[in-house]
Design a protein that fits this description.
mainly alpha, two-stranded antiparallel ribbon, two-stranded antiparallel sheet, 5 helices, 7% strand, globular
Length: 175
């Protein structure tokens, strides 16, 4: 696979991850612990970033534990059925995102013409994902950016906090 395409793909996917790390890192601690919608979006984004980078997905082993709950049993602010087993702090979530960032970079830089169409395949049910690697990477980037935008909007609306934009992976400080 063309090296410039790989670099472009990483620059943009990495920037999406950097922005997610940045918005969570810059969220004031009291807001992070009291605004459960923000917290659940951050947790969801972190878990699924890693999940969509795991090929095959059956090998997924999250760093942060969760329980799947039926709709009637979920907290009102939850955005899906994956409920954290405890209140993870920002540092735990950011550390997980940084590990997933490296995992994503390794996946992208390992792309070749031979493995480009390998599949991210969840199972054989009609709604299970069955995507070529390149498509799941692009899907993951869109998913990450979607939730990053939600987190940015919450901070801007609720506390007038502006978070820096990333043009390419590594251009903002995420340390």
């Amino acid at each position: 696979m063309d090296k410039s395409v790989i670099e472009i793909l990483w620059n943009q996917f990495g920037a999406s991850i950097d922005m997610l790390i940045n918005v969570i890192s810059h969220c004031p601690d009291n807001y992070f612990t009291t605004n459960k919608r923000f917290y659940y979006i951050a947790f969801h984004s972190t878990i699924f970033l890693d999940y969509y980078l795991t090929i095959p997905p059956s090998d997924f082993s999250p760093m942060l534990s969760f329980t799947k709950l039926e709709h009637k049993d979920r907290p009102q602010e939850a955005i899906d059925d994956l409920i954290p087993d405890k209140n993870f702090d920002k540092q735990e979530i950011v550390a997980y995102l940084k590990k997933s960032r490296e995992k994503g970079k390794q996946l992208i830089y390992s792309l070749t013409n031979e493995n480009l169409n390998s599949l991210f395949k969840e199972g054989d049910h009609p709604n299970d994902m069955n995507y070529p690697i390149l498509e799941i990477i692009l899907y993951n980037m869109r998913h990450t950016q979607h939730h990053t935008a939600q987190l940015n909007m919450l901070l801007r609306q609720d506390i007038n906090e502006h978070i820096e934009w990333s043009f390419r992976a590594g251009d903002i400080n995420i340390e």
